[in-house]
Hints:
The complex is a heterodimer of chains A (about 270) and B (about 260).
Chain A: H1 3-18, H2 31-45, H3 52-64, H4 73-92, H5 100-138, H6 143-204, E1 213-214, E2 219-220, H7 221-228, H8 232-246, H9 251-267
Chain B: H1 2-21, H2 30-41, H3 44-58, H4 72-85, H5 90-127, H6 131-170, H7 174-199, H8 205-218, H9 222-240, H10 243-249
Helix pairs in contact in B: 1-2, 1-4, 1-6, 2-3, 2-4, 3-4, 3-7, 4-5, 4-6, 5-6, 5-7
Amino acid sequence: MKNESNFKKFWQFFWRSWAIQASWNYERQMNMGFLYGIVPTLDRIYPDNNDPLQVAYKKEAYNRHMAFYNCTPQTSAFTLGLAASMEEEYAANRDTFNPDSINAVKTSLMGPLSGVGDSFFQGTIKVIAFGLGVSLAQQGSVLGPILAMLISFFPSAIITWFAGKLGYTMGSKYLNKLQGGLMDQVMFVCGIVGLMVVGGMAANMIGLVTPIQFASSGLVLQDILDTILPGMLNLAAALGLYTLIKKNISTTWLLVICIVGGVIFNALGILA
Amino acid sequence: MLVQSIVLGLIGVFCIMDSRLLGRLNFERPLITCTLVGLALGDLKTGLAVGASMELISMGLVNIGGAVPPDMNMAAIITSAFAITTSATIETALAIAMPIAVLGQFIGVIGRTVLGTLTHVADRAIEQGNFKKAYSMHIVWGTIIYALLYFVPIFLAIYIGTDAVEAIVNVIPAWLTAGLNLATKFLTAYGLALLLSVMLTRDLTIYFFLGFFLVVYLGLDITAIAIFACILALILNSVKFKKGAAAADGPAPADDYDPLEDDDL
């Protein structure tokens, strides 16, 4: 296989993985997105639309990739590359290769790849990019959003590119590695970085204070709280709401609680 | 007003296409789109301020898998426009954002249900051997429907809603404005709590507190926290997952760990 044609394939894996959500639907989620990704491969394998046998094979392959699918787009490139190489193998060894294994591999990969992809992109990259971006934007700097875009773009592009390439060229070999310890390591590192940044944001971006003063003694309650534990109210608010989320109270209700709570606590002069 | 509404609708299309065609590069986030709205309407400062606040509130609302949360991305675009074109303060605008976000959620749910029918059209097209039609359901029709799902509500909200918002804002009393100011702080806490609910595990809880205390006691900023967090995480990773430890744990084969793996992070 020539390198030049491989480059074109990698480019297709890359762009078509990014475009996998264009028809995201409740029924089979990213099914058509995955089909769109693997179409160039299938059309390359079965080019002759006038040969009834090829058309039958092609229909079978198209149908196969209309199955339920859902995965983080960036890491999904790995599955796409791997599935493409499996389709080629199947076309070459029709008698010995079991086509069911293609969807079996897709299904078995989407869970772990989504887990690692979401915790990396949604849990870590997004938190770092927008933690920095918001702190700059709050100072009125347009560098905030620009930096957030740059920090988001490069990891996403690099990982999508190499995921597709690795999946296609050595997918089955990396499969073992993914199911081994690599996943745990990525989750561990992402978890630490993400949580530390969220901890930092909880400390300096909420900004709750209490205006309560004791007129008789001239004591300011906030000063007392700060000597016990600075940012205590912010920590309490974040952890309190975390508890409510864990009790499965719906997002809409929690938004209402926040807004009504804000109006009430402010009117009572307890918090500001 | 018509031109403005169209431009904002197009910013909405840009926003939804980020996750449809660009693998979710986070260009859909309020911090980015509100800045664009600020640029388009000639008030970058307000755009940035609304973007920063909306970002904090919504950062934890992840739409992973099947769940569609309140659509803060759509609400952010509409809200930042209201904050710029009407006399609404940023806090008032944020409060207006919440019902818009819930409405956007409904629109999103309906849209994704309708898109399910395209799957059946594609199934039939494959059966008839019309392969091109099958995948155009995805890249052409899916894209168009999602674009409309954002363009139409945003266009209408700006075109019709601006006067109504102006009228509402003018009757909001001062005590309510002050209350909404506090409410945005709660909402920020809620946004961070949502992030925690996705990320927090028993073993990793201490790192949240570490980040918190590094800021309150040492006064580090977010950049510093991010840098130290990366370094600390990589150090701990090499300690926790080094060859000897993996072998001692038993099931994980030690051969799987080689120095190259760190490059993947």
